[in-house]
Amino acid sequence: MSFRRFLACGLSTSLALALSNCSNGQVDTPVPVIVTVTASPTNSAEPGTAGPAEPEQATPTDPALDLAALASEVEQELDVRVGVVMQDRAGAHTGGSLTPRPAWSTIKVPLAIAALRADPSLSGVAHSAITVSDNDAAQQLWESLGGGEQAAAAVEQVLRECGDDHTEVNPQVTRPGFSAFGQTDWSLADQASFARCLSTSTGQAEATVLAAMGEISPQHAYGIGQLEGARFKGGWGPEESGPYLVRQFGYVGDTFISIAAIPADGSYESGQLALTTLAGRLRPHIRS
Questions:
Q1: What pLDDT is attached to residue 19?
Q2: Percentages helix, strand, coil for the chain, rounded to the nearest 5?
Q3: Separation in Å, CA 135 to CA 21, 130, 177, 283
Q4: How far is CA 25 from CA 18, 37, 187, 193, in A?
Q5: Which three-class secondary structure string do you get for 79-134?
Q6: What would the DSSP string read from start to end of 146-177?
Q7: Could you tell me the end-to-end alpha-carbon distance of the chain, in angstroms, rounded to an integer?
Q8: pLDDT at position 38
Q9: Which residues lie closer than 8 Å to 147 by C-beta, 6 or more apart?
Q10: Where do the domains of the chain lie, and which CATH numbers do they carry?
């Protein structure tokens, strides 16, 4: 397995929640303020049960959606770089100038699946890792898989079953203060495809994690969390240069979404606002 990056910083946020669970307390940040943005009418298992992701097709199914224009509009309005991928079962749209790298706490989804396949008794730990993005719980899941290369291989197997043949899970700590797995490079396109695959999975581990993704704490319900019926997971953390990357992936009905933002002011709160704005403007184009 080649060199990889690392950590998972939990997606905790709220009307008034500091980063108590994020980065195992290694990062100080102001208390975030969630701003709900109403949608505007902008054109906007068990091993082997998941199956490969369906291939993407070139023709998008919603010609009314110009995702590049929508993303550009949000970038200009909020002084932020964003990235967004939106898929349904017949096509995909992409937009934005941002190509995010670290997965942060979004990687807790395949991590929880891998751990539950090995030990279903960890369901309560997995629930905490997903619903409140508990970093200690996620680390317990990682260690239950043997840690390091062994754990990374188990998480990678979950991704491979969904057709992702290149994402490599980071096995070792590469940034002090952060745990290994969250620094995994995981692209927005691969995340959206994973969400699509996960939505049709029949394994018990997947079902447990999907249920948790539908029970995300209200404190974390910005961005995709503003969309009714969403199953999602988010994560955030500081880039090595300082500004916060805030990202989420998930699905609503038959629409699979991954979004990310790095605001010009570098703050977590502005990243939250950007994701909520994006999700609101995607709402009219969601196929349920």
A1: 38
A2: 40, 15, 45
A3: 6, 10, 12, 30
A4: 10, 29, 26, 32
A5: CEEEEEEEECCCCEEEEECCCCCECHHHHHHHHHHHHHHHCHHHHHHHHHHHHCCC
A6: TSHHHHHHHHHHHHHHTT--S-----S--STT
A7: 39
A8: 35
A9: none
A10: 22-285 (3.40.710.10)
pLDDT digits (tens, 9 = 90+) for 116-149: 999 999 999 999 999 999 999 999 999 999 999 9
Rounded to an integer, the average pLDDT of 77-83 is: 98
What percentage of the chain reaches a pLDDT higher than 70? 78
> CA–CA separation, 112 vs 208, rounded Å?
9
Which residues have CB under 8 Å from 16's CB, separation 6+?
A: 31, 32, 33
Greater model confidence, 208 or 38 = 208
State the pTM of this model. 0.80
Nearest to 272, CA basis, from 98, 80, 120: 80
